[in-house]
Amino acid sequence: MAKLLLVPALTVLMIFSAVAHAESYLSRAEVDAYIEELIQQHNFSRPELEEVLAAAERRQDIIDLMRRPAERRLNWHEYSKIFLDEQRIAGGVEFWQQNQATLERAQKEYGVAPEVIVAIIGVETRYGRVTGRHRVVDALMTLAFDYPPRASFFRKELTQFLLLAREEGKNPISLTGSYAGAMGFGQFIPSSYRSYAVDFDQDGVRDIWQNRNDAIGSVANYFSRHGWRGAEQVTLPVQLKAETEQLLSIANQSLKPTHSIAEMAEMGVIVDGLDPDARVLLLRLLGGEKPEYWLGFDDFYVITRYNHSRLYAMAVYQLGQEIVKRRKQSIG
């Protein structure tokens, strides 16, 4: 009899614990102030906000993931293996073939080559197969109120997320994404969705979660709006006359092109045949027998606007090139 009574008692205890945990954010003064701010600035109702935010759970695993992103803990040799694998290259060729007409229209309208769009979606979600298992409201609440290093940024993203859900008629509790709150095929954070997502098939909905047409158009629009040129080099391997202290000091110094080709030549980079006035950055990638040196041009910088990492940008570029190569082979 005691064993029979134990089951409902434990059930009640678990329910009480879950409710108390879910409501814990509402008991915090900074959350209450945030709710009031949303009411005043964006005309939300308190009951609606409290219902959504009460459902949010603090996720320690999300904080742990934020503290050790792959871009910071891996060198290029390790990082590239994640994204330049056979499955992702073959998947890119297949995704291109399945969506060729949409990719061609995106190139025509936005000037962004298909391999760039395909590579972004491949790196981000393996072509829509892995779009994130975390509830976005959990991720953004956790990072907005329990991750001080970037709390301000994620509080703004949380606001953008709540606005997005209201504008698009989405249930904010049900949407899932990455541990940083990014969503859909191309992993747009809420502010990027509101600014750059497009209804590319003109069905009245900007659906980056299930609609490949909208996902492709949205990625292309993002690149276009960030200054993608498409008519010049993205990045180029180079040799150095010598690894001087001056060159080592500027390598990986900035994501933005800050030196001219002529200046690079003066410092000892071999740049024969390149426009001396073009602005570039110098990349030093580690992991092989010796460092690799690359020049990054304006479009390389644009890729880093998607993810502020030179390793990420290089992975996108090289995956795109591998997909182009494999596609040409498959065509004949």
Question: How would you portray this structure in words?
Answer:
The strands form two sheets. The chain has a four-stranded antiparallel sheet. The protein has 332 residues and is of the alpha+beta class. It has three domains: 1-55; 58-228, no CATH class; 235-331, Lysozyme (Orthogonal Bundle). Mean pLDDT is 92; it is low at 1-22. It starts with a helix and ends with a helix. It contains 17 helices and six strands. Strand 5 and strand 6 form a beta hairpin.
The helix fraction, in percent, is 55-70%
Tell me the overall shape.
globular
Please give the number of β-strands.
6
Over the alpha carbons, how many angstroms does the gyration radius reach?
23 Å
Biggest β-sheet, characterized?
A: 4 strands, antiparallel
How many angstroms does the end-to-end distance come to? 75 Å
Mean pLDDT: 92
Q: Helical segment tally?
A: 17
Number of domains: 3
Order of helices and strands: HHHHHHHHHEHHEHHEHEHEEHH
Class by helix and strand content? alpha+beta
Strand order of the largest sheet: 3-6-5-4
- Unreliable stretches: 1-22
Strand content: 5-15%
Annotate the secondary structure layout.
Elements: H1 2-22, H2 29-42, H3 46-54, H4 60-67, H5 70-73, H6 76-83, H7 86-98, H8 100-110, H9 114-125, E1 134-135, H10 136-146, H11 151-168, E2 176-177, H12 190-196, H13 212-225, E3 235-238, H14 245-250, E4 259-260, H15 261-267, E5 279-285, E6 292-296, H16 298-306, H17 310-331
